[in-house]
Amino acid sequence: MKMDLLRTSFMSLGFSNVETFIARGNVVFESPAKSAQTLEKKIESHLQKSLGDDVRTFIRSSVEKAVIAQYRPCATSELDAAGNSLYIAVLPAPPRGEAKDTLMAFRTKDDDFHVNGHELCWLYRTKMTESAFTGAILENLLGMPATMRNATTVRKLSAKYPV
């Protein structure tokens, strides 16, 4: 979906100060609604009607974005090492029990995972295309949808729209 169409779609829902950030479906907006779950359902329903496709949405407040952006699942030297990348999977709920254990069984020398509340940090020490792990595998293992963002994008988003 083009970002200008996505922005217009959010404005038609009555949200204010709507902006898109980087062409990955990141939308920043203001709403008087207090329930993220209610907003997610409202947005999903609207996008399904206008696009004809199911689109999962994940809402995080400015405070939540800042916490996610500041979280470091491992040493800075590990995060900054050449070839290493950190991705953050935003989830609808914290992974629990058997699903979390199964995910952790996928840890390898190239792929490492850290759960932080409703987010999962995936540190990979190789090119993403060379990893045996994928976002689709993540969703299947956890039994829930996820959306993946590079940690750099999350930090930029948090910095541009501070608390």
> What class, by secondary structure content?
alpha+beta
Average pLDDT taken over every residue:
93
Can you count the beta strands?
6
CATH architecture of the largest domain: 2-Layer Sandwich
Order of SSEs: HEEHHHEHEEHEH
- Strand percentage, roughly? 15-25%
Biggest sheet character: 4 strands, antiparallel
Provide a descriptive summary of the structure in words:
The chain is an alpha+beta fold and 163 residues long. The chain has two domains: 3-59; 63-160, Alpha-Beta Plaits, CATH 3.30.70. The protein has helices at residues 3-12, 36-51, 62-70, 76-80, 97-104, 135-142, 151-160; strands spanning 16-21, 26-30, 85-90, 111-116, 119-124, 147-150. Strands 4-5-3-6 form a four-stranded antiparallel β-sheet. A two-stranded antiparallel ribbon has the order 1-2. Strand 1 (16-21) and strand 2 (26-30) form a beta hairpin. Helix 3 crosses helix 7 (151-160).
Helix and strand arrangement:
Elements: H1 3-12, E1 16-21, E2 26-30, H2 36-51, H3 62-70, H4 76-80, E3 85-90, H5 97-104, E4 111-116, E5 119-124, H6 135-142, E6 147-150, H7 151-160
Antiparallel strand pairs: 1-2, 3-5, 3-6, 4-5
Entry keywords:
single chain, 163 residues, alpha+beta, Alpha-Beta Plaits, 2 domains, four-stranded antiparallel beta sheet, two-stranded antiparallel ribbon, 7 helices, globular
